Each structure stands twice: as C-alpha cells, then as structure tokens.
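Predict the 3D structure for this chain.
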Amino acid sequence: MQLKEEGYRLSQNVNPLDIVKNYGSPLYVYDADIIERQYKRMTGAFSVPQLSINYAVKALSNINILKFVKKLGAGLDCVSLNEVELGLRAGFAPAEIIYTPSSVSFEEMVLAQKKGVRINIDSIPMLEQFSERFPKTPVCLRFNPHVFAGGNRKISVGHINSKFGISVHQLPHLLRIVKQLNVQVEGVHIHTGSDILDTDVFLSATEILFNIAKEFKKLSYIDFGSGFKVAYKEGDIETDIEQLGQKLSKRFNTFCEEYGKELTLMFEPGKYLVSEAGTFLVQTNVVKQTTAAVFAGVNSGLNHLIRPMFYDAYHHIVNLNNPYGKKRIYTIVGYICETDTFGVDRQIGEIKEGDILAFQNAGAYGFMMASNYNSRVRPAEVMVYQGDDFLIRRAETLDDILRSQIEL
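Done. Predicted structure below.
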C-alpha cells in the first residue's frame, strides 16, 4: 500500500476492504509484489561481479515469506537457532544462511555449526571458544565501527556503547588470536543500525571495514549489513539506494582490485524489503470525544503493533471506508489496559464506528513483536501476490494461549 490515501488499494488493484471481509480483522497483509520490487531495486542498484542479498529473518519470519524471498534469489541472515531452522525448512541450503547472533550460549553456536550454516562471531571470547572447538570451520567476524547511525538509539547498533560486534580498537588483539589459533576468516561484517538517513554516514563506516578487511588475506565476502531507511509518511526521507549503489559499487570494485581477488558484496536487508509491503488493518470500535481529544479506539493495541509505543515509530493511517472524506483530527488508540497510542492528532477522513483503518509500513517488526498481553490472541496474516490472496497464518484462539500451559 502506498503512502497517499488515493493509493489505498494494494498492488494489482486488490481492495483491502475485500481482504478484511474474507479474513476479518485485526489483520496483517503483505503485498509480495512490493517485496519483489524492493528486491529487484536493490539488486539493480549495485554493479559488482558478485552480490549476495541475505534477507534479515527477524523482520518478518513467516515461512511463506521466506519461501518467497528464496524464489527471488535471496539468502538469509538469522539471529537465532530457530530462525536457522525456519530457513532450512523453507528450503534454503545451509551455505545460503548466515547465523549472526549476539550474546547467545556456546551450546547454541555448536548447534548452528552442526547445521552447516555460515557462522558470524561478534566477540573475542566466543571466537576463542569456537575456534578451539572447530578449528577447520570458517567464520565471519562482526565488528563495531563506533559509528552512530539510525533513526533511534534503540535501533542503532554500531555506536561505542553497543553490545554488538568486536570493537575496531581491539583489532591488534584480535589479529594475534586469529594467528595463534589459525582461525579461517572468510568474511568481515558491520551493521550500524536501522533507518540510516545519510548515505555518507553509511559509506564512512564501509571505509572502516575496508581497512579491517586488508588485514585478512583469505576473505570470500564483505558484509555491510543494512539499515536502509524507507519512507513512513509523505515527504519523508528514504535511503537513496541507487546513489548508494553507484558510490559503493565503484569503491568496492576498486578495493577488490587492490585486494587481488573478486569478493562478494553482501547485505542483510530486512525492513527495506518488507516494511512497505505490510499493512495492518484494524476496525474502529468506538469514537470518543473528551475535553482533550477525539479518540478513535480500535480492535488492536500494543499487543499487535508495538513499534509506535516502543520506538515512537510513525505509521501513516488511512480510513479505508472514507479515504477522501472531510479530514478531522483523531488520536488513534488501542484496547489494551495501557496507554497504547498509535498516532496523536492525525488528520484522517472522518471515522465512524466499524470503519477499517490501515496502518501502513507495517511489514517489518510488526507481527514479529506481537504478544499475548492481556491474554489477547495474535492476528492472522495474509499474503497478496499478483492479484491473489493467501492466508499464511490463521488468527490465534484461546486454545493456542493455553496449549503450553500446565493446569494443576
């Protein structure tokens, strides 16, 4: 779904109101045509001999989405063993999966190694343990470039106080360990954060990684992470992927010439591929005027979409039943026994009880961060592709909540 109200239909002219009639609400809908568009846009932006796009599973891990990005040609970036398992079940070969955890147990690292996936290590103690146990297993090393980038401190992961990665200042120490243990380093990696506004900030971090890469003579790939920003509202800034692709491709190809070997340029986009594809559809339960505001209360809350409360994230909201109507100012709130506010003082086409509201850019970290708070069930998910719609997850029931509980 597009940002403008007049773009309230999904791709292939699918009407989301028809989707709600078929599947009910609240409901997550993913437009796979947009995922395909974003993937092709990204692959077309970079002119390098070898490019690898590893979809960040944590953004949206429904197995049908994984199967779809596999058909597009993507690999996977996984941050947990269960994500690895999902990737394997979706048909990815172990070599197409890179496992990039943080602060996990050594036992989980061992299990991942046994699956045969690529291993990305982000601490020196873990590197020492892992290399002693598996001296012949190649690894990737994740570095912290000490660059602050991202739209929110909670999603900036490359700054000096971040838990992620091996500090660039520890490189001399790291090199001694690599030599002493004869570690086979096949890749180096950074990820500065999400919602990167300035391509120059991203490029400055890549220069840091290029300097690190020179120290390792048998690399196969360099992984620059992701964090590319998408537009959340009219006039919003987004990462100029074409400009970045042009600049980084030129620099990467020059580096490969200096290095004496063609390396794979690797990225791990999540939000960039699926955020715009997702629309969260809710129904208005009540329109309530107080002395301070006019509230539109909907049949959902922070249990389904926590990003506005957790990250102060903005999601454009459209009244699908009255997209062109006279705009009034509403504060959109949920049904949870907390202050779960989706948007404050939004100008939206006049809302009536029963109207369906669409929260746009809800494909990434929407359903994935959903919970059963207040003993509410999680919603269904639907995928739309080339004019057809497919139920890819049914809505939960109370039985699902009780399934893992043990009554005494």
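The chain has two domains: 5-29+277-402, 46-272.
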